[in-house]
């Protein structure tokens, strides 16, 4: 027993014979607990948009959801989404969240003017996105799709963070597990006349189908409607003043 104790704790400053003579005086060193420093969400730099995305699953596999939130250097929310992906394992949900965020960013009007920065609390996903050859076969088709999407984004990067820094994305992903209608909220201040928020996009998603929807269609409809409303307003003002 004394030899086993010495092998288990080699730094114990007690000889084997002393352990046999006085076993009551043996003090086993306590395990050192490393306290991970709490790090909250940090704002990106100017001309950079930060996308925190996450995936959640109940079971292996089980009901799963994905969610994410895109914010600018002022902390303003630009895009927020949450949706169910039906049944999937956690790793599949995590990588699908990255693919969804790429698709949303490519459909947004901020594509060519900002750097896209991803923050993930999954080291596996970060390594798969940076090195597709390291991805397992069960997620390889999604990783290859992401590879194609990456070529369409001029500047992007992905970094690993602790879960505490991505609590908003984690909440959106968990809420997406039981969500019947996809949530897509877009904040847009690029066009005059109209609300800064395009809320309740479930209406558009319901019209065109919540699965397999091309988000570029949503943006085109939003831009067309708001431009028509803007010019109609000023035409009406012109006729009223000319009377």
What's the structural blueprint in terms of helices and strands?
Blueprint: H1 2-8, H2 16-21, E1 48-57, E2 62-71, E3 77-88, H3 90-107, E4 115-120, H4 123-130, H5 140-150, E5 156-160, H6 167-176, E6 183-187, E7 197-198, H7 202-208, H8 215-242
Parallel strand pairs: 1-4, 4-5
Antiparallel strand pairs: 1-2, 2-3, 3-6, 6-7
Describe the structure.
With 243 residues, the chain is of the alpha/beta class. Helices cover 39% and strands 21% of the residues. The protein contains eight helices and seven strands; from the N terminus they run ααβββαβααβαββαα. Strands 5-4-1-2-3-6-7 form a seven-stranded mixed sheet, sandwiched between helices.
List keywords for this structure.
single chain, 243 residues, alpha/beta, elongated
Task: Provide a short characterization of the protein structure.
The protein is an alpha/beta fold and 243 residues long.
Mass-distribution shape: elongated
Rg, please? 26 Å
Portion in helices: 25-40%
Unreliable residue stretches: 190-213
Compute the number of strand runs.
7
Structural class: alpha/beta
Question: Strand-residue fraction?
Answer: 15-25%
**Biggest sheet layout:** 7 strands, mixed
Mean pLDDT metric? 78
What is the overall number of helices? 8
